[in-house]
Amino acid sequence: QSALTQPASVSGSPGQSITISCTGTSSDVGSYNLVSWYQQHPGKAPKLMIYEVSKRPSGVSNRFSGSKSGNTASLTISGLQAEDEADYYCCSYEGRKVFGTGTKVTVL
Amino acid sequence: EVQLVESGGGLVKPGGSLRLSCAASGFTFSNAWMNWVRQAPGKGLEWVGRIKRKTDGGTTDYAAPVKGRFTISRDDSKNTLYLQMNSLKTEDTAVYYCTTVIVGATTYEDYWGQGTLVTVSS
Fold first, then answer.
1. H or E stretch covering A103
2. A41 and chain B in contact, CB less than 8 A
3. List of chain B residues whose C-beta atoms are within 8 Å of the C-beta of residue A87
4. B44–A46 CB contact, under 8 Å
5. How far apart (Å, rounded) are the C-alpha atoms in residues B16 and A83?
6. Tens digit of pLDDT for each residue in B60-103?
7. B55-92 burial, b for 16+ CB within 10 Å, e for fewer?
């Protein structure tokens, strides 16, 4: 199973909104509403930001939202803040987990 | 407080073996499906494998790159997860994390350990 495809980098200015895409296939992203998103700061363990495509765990800011259309899932960060600068990974987790290639978010 | 603490990482030669442990606390370990995820230096996350809880059969599943070389097991009496790694290759060099999800009636909590570094080099 190949890694899900994400853009290598996305950037935005403070206060702006950005969207990160995650493209899979009809066998993973397209088949199930089991897509999650992780945020990872350097040297830290990943932190879950979104699960089941669009649900937020307790404590995660509502500036983070998720969606899916066909074989592509998306993470939108609105009101971009300096602390959002990190790597982001999508994950399809029905059965075997498959992670995305990762996206570096830069706050300009 | 939920804690996952990995140990056992280190430097090993290609072809060698290593066993990682993950000590769990703060939740009912025997009820949990547990995963290992790794991250090579400067690279992305890669799922290694999973073990189900015994009431779901206790079965394991592995990613293609490690299948036949790595074995996941658990000791519910010790609240500990293991990853036995054999025939190690240089490309297995990574930080290895144990992870789990705890789903409650109204909660969904995802936990990761701090990771343990495995370096495969001659």
1. strand A103-107
2. no
3. 44
4. no
5. 41
6. 999 999 999 999 999 999 999 999 999 999 999 999 999 999 99
7. eeeeebebbeebeeebbbebebeebbbbbebeebeeeb
d(CA B43, CA B45): 7
Q: Which residue has the tokens 């299948």?
A: B67
Asked if A58 is an interface residue toward chain B (Cβ–Cβ < 8 A), one would say yes
pLDDT of residue B12 exceeding 90? yes
Q: What is the pLDDT of residue A1?
A: 73
Those of residues 4-33 in A touching chain B at CB distance below 8 A are none
Q: What are phi and psi of A63, to 5 degrees?
A: -75, -15
List the one residue out of B39, B27, B22, B47 whose CA is nearest residue A99. Answer: B47
A10 Cα to chain B: minimum distance (Å)? 16
